[in-house]
């Protein structure tokens, strides 16, 4: 699972095809006279850890790091007050979609750092939060990321499954990294795959995804999932004046291959220009969007206007937190933030993103200016 090579005057170890450990060659040569490769990889202070896909700094978060896994929107667990918990094991994406709501991929203008979480540590936190929620929890693996870049994906799914409260495990993926073998190995372990396919047209795919996108491969992946025990939900993003012609074709494709065995086969999403996401010129009104979905519902005899109930999602108490909007706290900065100009501090067993110029290791006093679904943003005071 480790390959090694040299690049730009550095010795590079590539772990599980995603974690790059880089050490300046002369330093590596000096260290290798005294220490083994494994010792250098683990203990050398001179190494840099890089996300192989995005080439950004990568923080490895484990139990030893002492980083709480609640409080950040990009990694850990997000609890929006229902029986569904979003599990975010890694950041970073191999695509560069024009509609990306989190400005991910190589073309990002905002993302500065990436994070990856040790599967045991993530499962430990999940178990704590799921235990609080009670029976019938859905663990939904997603992220500001392509979750299948996570090199411990199957291991994580198995650990989530072993938690008593877990009823459903689902994942949101762009499908480009799935293969027939991977789908077979997930059969019986994962319940549903939400596959985002926004066009079936090669040329438009390049425009939408911002990189070369394997349309035929992803169609094949969709067919393989549909004919397995895993449920398939196809989730296109409808971007006006870009893929208007594609949505009906995707509906027909989903129905043809037999998507949606237990849950609805399609989850058509409207492009929304989110804060921090990519902005496009043309935005459809909700009214136009839902009117069209209702027409297609009639025409194709399929449910397209969905609600949380269609997925068995119900309100549940939020995992308690002492952090309140407007309050001030002082916490230690433990990592650089996800976006430029941000740091991550710990307070009251939560991570808080803080806008500050202070450095990792320093303490910062801040006021919480945003608190949403258990994720926090603070501003230095
Ligand atoms: S696949 Fe998802 S995370 Fe990746 S760039 Fe596209 S929208 Fe963003």
From TrEMBL:
The keyword Protein transport does not apply. Pfam families: Radical_SAM (PF04055). CDD domains: Radical_SAM. Keywords: Iron, Iron-sulfur, Metal-binding, S-adenosyl-L-methionine. Residues 77-303 form the Radical SAM core domain. The keyword Disulfide bond does not apply. Residues 322-381 form the TRAM domain. This is Radical SAM protein.
């Amino acid at each position: 699972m480790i390959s090694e090579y040299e690049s730009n005057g550095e010795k590079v170890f590539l772990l599980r095809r995603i974690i790059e450990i880089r050490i300046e060659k002369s330093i590596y040569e000096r260290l290798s006279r005294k220490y083994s490769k494994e010792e250098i990889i683990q203990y050398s202070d001179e190494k840099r850890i890089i996300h192989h896909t995005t080439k950004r700094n990568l923080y490895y978060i484990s139990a030893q790091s002492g980083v709480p896994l609640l409080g950040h929107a990009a990694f850990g667990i997000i609890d929006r007050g229902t029986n569904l918990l979003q599990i975010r094991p890694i950041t970073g994406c191999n695509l560069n979609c024009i509609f990306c709501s989190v400005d991910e991929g190589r073309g990002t203008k905002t993302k500065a750092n990436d994070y990856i979480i040790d599967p045991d540590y993530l499962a430990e936190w999940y178990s704590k939060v799921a235990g609080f929620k009670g029976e019938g929890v859905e663990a939904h693996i997603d992220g500001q990321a392509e979750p299948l870049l996570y090199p411990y994906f199957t291991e994580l799914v198995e650990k989530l499954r072993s938690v008593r409260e877990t009823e459903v495990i689902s994942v949101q993926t762009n499908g480009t990294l799935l293969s027939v073998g991977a789908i077979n190995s997930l059969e019986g372990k994962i319940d549903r795959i939400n596959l985002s396919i926004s066009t079936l047209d090669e040329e438009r795919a390049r425009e939408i995804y911002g990189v070369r996108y394997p349309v035929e491969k992803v169609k094949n992946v969709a067919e393989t999932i549909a004919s397995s025990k895993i449920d398939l939900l196809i989730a296109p993003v409808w971007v006006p004046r870009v893929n208007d012609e594609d949505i009906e074709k995707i509906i027909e494709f989903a129905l043809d291959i037999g998507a949606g065995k237990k849950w609805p086969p399609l989850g058509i999403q409207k492009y929304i220009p989110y804060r921090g996401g990519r902005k496009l010129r043309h935005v459809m009104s909700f009214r136009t969007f839902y009117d069209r979905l209702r027409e297609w519902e009639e025409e194709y005899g399929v449910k397209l206007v969905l609600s949380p109930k269609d997925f068995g999602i119900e309100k549940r108490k939020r995992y308690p937190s002492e952090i309140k909007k407007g309050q001030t706290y002082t916490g230690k900065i433990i990592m650089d933030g996800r976006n430029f100009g941000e740091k991550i501090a710990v307070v009251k067993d939560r991570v808080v993103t803080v806008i500050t110029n202070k450095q990792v290791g320093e303490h910062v006093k801040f006021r919480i200016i945003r608190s949403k679904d258990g994720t926090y943003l603070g501003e230095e005071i």
